[in-house]
């Protein structure tokens, strides 16, 4: 996944930017596509949060697993609100990142 996201920055739920290469190095990465307005996303996100939290807590540091959220929300503010409300301590592709803009149409 570092090959795909290399050279990009990811964001935390607190808005801090991190380099994808550093954050994802030697990790299994799950891309999580979701939106706050989607009921199944709102149902599944807390389950993923619990799974991620448990996995990271039990793993040797650094944990070999990372979730990268790719928002299908309608605005950057909706994305941040959803992340702050329900997400775990995982990373996200910034709302205005060109990769996000290219990937989302392929999902519909």
Structure report:
This protein is an alpha/beta fold. Helix content is 46%, strand content 20%. It is built from five helices and five strands. The strands form two sheets. The protein has a three-stranded parallel beta sheet, covered by helices on one side. Helix 3 links the parallel strand 3 and strand 4. The two termini are 22 Å apart. The model has no long low-confidence stretch (mean pLDDT 88). It holds the Pfam family Thioredoxin_8. It comes from Saimiri boliviensis boliviensis.
The domain count comes to 1
Q: Radius of gyration over alpha carbons?
A: 13 Å
Q: What oligomeric state do these chains adopt?
A: single chain
Strand order of the largest sheet: 3-4-5
| Global mean pLDDT | 88
Strand content: 15-25%
> What helical percentage do the residues reach?
40-55%
Which blocks of ≥5 consecutive residues have pLDDT under 50?
A: none
Q: Biggest β-sheet, characterized?
A: 3 strands, parallel
Distance between the termini: 22 Å
User: Which fold does the CATH topology refer to?
Assistant: Glutaredoxin
CATH H level, superfamily name:
Glutaredoxin
SS content category: alpha/beta
Compressed to H and E, one letter per element, the order equals HEEHEHEHEH
Shape: globular
CATH structural class:
Alpha Beta
Instruction: Provide a count of the helices.
Output: 5
Kindly state the number of beta strands.
Answer: 5
CATH architecture: 3-Layer(aba) Sandwich
GO biological process, one term: sensory perception of smell
InterPro entries: RdCVF2, Thioredoxin-like_fold, Thioredoxin-like_sf
Protein name: Nucleoredoxin like 2
Domain Thioredoxin-like fold: 26-101
């Amino acid at each position: 996944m570092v090959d795909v996201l290399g050279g990009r920055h990811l964001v935390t739920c607190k808005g801090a930017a991190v380099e994808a290469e550093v954050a994802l190095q030697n990790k299994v990465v799950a891309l999580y596509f979701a939106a706050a307005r989607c009921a199944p996303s709102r149902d599944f996100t807390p389950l993923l949060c619990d799974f991620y939290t448990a996995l990271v807590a039990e793993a040797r540091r650094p944990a070999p697993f990372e979730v990268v959220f790719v928002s299908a929300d309608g605005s950057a503010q909706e994305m941040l609100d959803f992340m702050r409300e329900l997400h775990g301590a995982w990373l996200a592709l910034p709302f205005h990142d060109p990769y996000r803009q290219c990937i989302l149409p392929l999902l519909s």
